[in-house]
Amino acid sequence: MKKNLKNKKWFAHTSISIGCAGFSTLLIVILLGAASLTLVLALSTSSVWSIKSSIDTKNSNHAKSLVNACAEVALETIRENNSYVGTSNVVLNGNTCTYIITNTGGANRGITISGSVKEIIRKLSITTSAFNPLVISSWQEV
After folding, report:
1. Which residues are registered as beta bridge partners of 108?
2. Between the CA of residue 114 and those of 48, 51, 76, 140, what are the distances in Å?
3. What distance in Å separates the CA atoms of residue 21 and residue 29, rounded to the nearest whole number?
4. Which residues are bridge partners to 140 per DSSP?
5. Segment-wise mean pLDDT, segments of 10 residues, the chain, 142 residues
6. Model pTM?
7. Among 138, 141, 121, 126, which residue's Cα sits nearest to residue 62?
8. Domain residue spans in the chain?
9. How far apart, in whole angstroms, are the C-alpha atoms of residue 119 and residue 55?
10. What distance in Å separates the CA atoms of residue 65 and residue 97, rounded to the nearest whole number?
11. Cα-based angle 134, 136, 142 (whole degrees, multiple of 5)
12. Closest C-alpha to 134, from 99, 86, 89, 84
């Protein structure tokens, strides 16, 4: 009988140490899971911001192309009609840009162009100083 009591004591003592080891293992698994979840969330957020930045860059380039094309239309308008002064809209690929041509004296003309794609707005300011040939004094993004 004494032998059975010894086995029971050993078993009781072992189950306590197994319980502590199980608790430690569970705690480590929970901590590793939390760290992994934090890392996944950080990478996901970074990916979302990267995609948004890429879309904004694409829209910005598209808006710049729109404004440059609109500037070419405005310059062609001046070339065809030296006395033209006014405002006009141009629609390209479903996006609208506006140019304003002003007489700044003599053969000088000022052209202000504005165009937008989504929320991105680009503006240009062009100055010409002669008609034939058409001479561009400045071409600046504003």
Report:
1. 105
2. 30, 26, 17, 12
3. 12
4. 125
5. 51 54 88 96 94 95 96 95 95 95 95 96 96 93 94
6. 0.72
7. 121
8. 61-141
9. 11
10. 11
11. 140
12. 84
